[in-house]
Design a protein that fits this description.
Elements lengths: L4 E5 L3 H15 L5 E6 L3 E2 L5 H6 L4 H4 L1 E2 H8 L2 E4 L2 E5 L4 E4 L2 E2 L5 E3 L2 E4 L2 E4 L4 E2 L7 H4 L6 H19 L10 E6 L3 H19 L10 E6 L11 H14 L2 E3 L4 E4 L3 E4 L4 E3 L2 E4 L3 E2 L17 E2 L12 E3 L4 E2 L12 H19 L13 E6 L3 E7 L6 E5 L1 H19 L1 H17 L7
Parallel strand pairs: 1-2, 1-11, 2-5, 11-22, 13-14, 13-19, 14-15, 21-23
Antiparallel strand pairs: 3-4, 6-7, 7-10, 8-9, 12-20, 16-17, 17-18, 24-25, 25-26
Length: 433
Amino acid sequence: MSKPTIVVVGGGAGGLELVTRLGRRLGKKGKADVVLVDRNSTHIWKPLLHEVATGVLDSGQDEISYQAHSASNGYRFQRGTLCDLDRDTRTLTLAAIIDDDGHEILPARRLSYDYMVMAVGSVSNDFGTEGVADHCHFLDSPAQAEGFRQALLNTFMRYSTRMTNDEPPCITVGIIGAGATGVELAAELHDASRMLKSYGFTELGREHLRVHVIEAAPKILPALPDRISQAVHKELEKLGVKVHVDTRVTKVDDHAITTSDDERIDIDLGVWAAGIKAPAFLSELGLQTERNHRIKVAATMQSIDDPHIFAFGDCASCPQPDGKVVPPRAQAAHQQASVLYKNLCAVIDDKPLKEFVFRDRGSLISLAHFDAIGSLMRAASARSLFIEGNLARFFYASLYRMHQRTIHGSIKTAMMVVVDGLNRFLKPRLKLH
């Protein structure tokens, strides 16, 4: 009997963790052919994209090559974008890869599967707001984060030539959306502007930067407890960030954001971080989806239409015992990857599958080097422990190390911690090119 083929589409945090564990357990032992499909050739942890956007994190140093990682972890990597699915024959089609000059690098390909896992994550949802797609930066991918970083550096250089003693220039950034990405980016911008001046890149400093964070909900971080929201709000205002709550954006153009109150906020750079949705192509695969394109799955994370197709993370709508669905959060994807790994092994061994139950471990928000704030859930208790400062910063940093440990192992992760520490002394704290 031939070994089964498991195809995982999407190499984000959850997808890479899943395929790594499957490759080590099944691929290396010849029990299954494990394949990862992703449109990009490298991986970077998505919660760090706001640091890539300011240059605090150099994506060239922290990104992981799928091809190299697959060679040492028992799975195969196929670069490509899923464009069609045939459930009857259990085959998927990858679109041809075209370079910037329009030349075909790889032709369209078909892959067969016995079990397929959708782990394509989410993209920004601009809700059709006028001008957003044309005039705002998004932070859905490393390429988009790098695009914003270059625009930020160019803006600082351009304004440096306008320095006068009488009327120093002011750079204004408008961030639409006060979720974790929006508030963390606001703090990182202030830290980055300080470092740009210290390196002599520009004569402009924090005092020449104005950041507006605009949120339609009554508070920032609307999905988190009030105590965290209020504490972060206070810290942002200490940094000089102008926070707008209960404010809906109706239009964005080249130089301004317009709100539903007809207020016009002049900006040099705009960032959209106000909402997410699953990629639209998921609703074109013949599987039942919600309005935001999330695939409807059972508690076992199997599609309600096809037991051979699984989905998890931001692209899946997974029911919970209380009637809600699993929230689109990084910790949820991490927990689902662990359960789905066990379920796929169980499927191959013809054993029963486990149902996924999300357990909230708390929330942490990093405000650059200025502060960190969050809460940790107490085991089975519904009560949480509020933390901030160095302790919160330690736990926040440990989230990334846990991700690294899953995909690299304990020894390599420990070595990375040492290397990162050395780089703090050997290299600039900010990417300047």
